[in-house]
Amino acid sequence: MIEVKPYKDAQSSKREQVEQMFDSIAPKYDFLNRFLSMGIDQIWRKRAINSLKEVNPKQILDVATGTADLAIAALKLNPDHVTGIDISNQMLQVGRNKISHKALNGKITLQQADSANLPFEDNKFDAITVAFGVRNFEFLQQGINQMYRVTRDGGKLAVLEFSKPKSFPFKQLYNFYFKYILPGWGGLISKSKTAYTYLPESVEHFPEGENFAAYLKNAGYKKIEIKPLTFGICTLYTAIK
Ligand code: SAM
Which of 13, 14, 15, 22 to mutate to test the pocket of ligand 1 (most atoms within 8 A of CB)? Predict the structure, then answer.
């Protein structure tokens, strides 16, 4: 897999660069998500949460939680607790403010941690979620292995990630939007041109579909399902430990 980093001329690791990039766009992240996806991101999050109903999860881990949108959406499953982890302190801070504002402090805890080294005991969680996070991992297989380790037997994983539509005219429309519209608006509003050129580049090189499923299989996951959403702009992957 080709490693795509946000700041091409910098020597720092992908993890450091990704952390720096999300720290810098954190205050504008939620607005840009809604604006650039025209609200569709909320529908994708609901699909991911609904896919977990069958395991009736009481302990949920949201990896790469960012500003905690998926962690908050996961409360629909009526869990005892949701834990969110992320490497970017600024993204977590925006998430903490939202959680306090909604008086959800007793239900959701956010902590700074890296997917490559999850600070939890084996088999702790009934369900694990990751939305638009795996593409940013410096160590993809290690992150998935760690998620597998902290899931209980029979627990479920739900991963949302961007993918590339294959059919006309969605492929052409998507390419135009991702190459020209998104970097323009994203760069202007977030003041980070890097973040919104990194986004299409990282999607371009991410191992999607069966290629991503192979990483899940390697970790030990079973019953892997791949569901393209919205003409294949996004894919929901689910798997059972
Ligand atoms: N899940 C959130 C959502 O759906 O809005 C945030 C997605 S945002 C595109 C990607 C997040 O992944 C960022 O907050 C980034 O800091 C986090 N991230 C990237 N690499 C990570 C890693 N190795 N471990 C934990 N978080 C990571």
Answer: 22
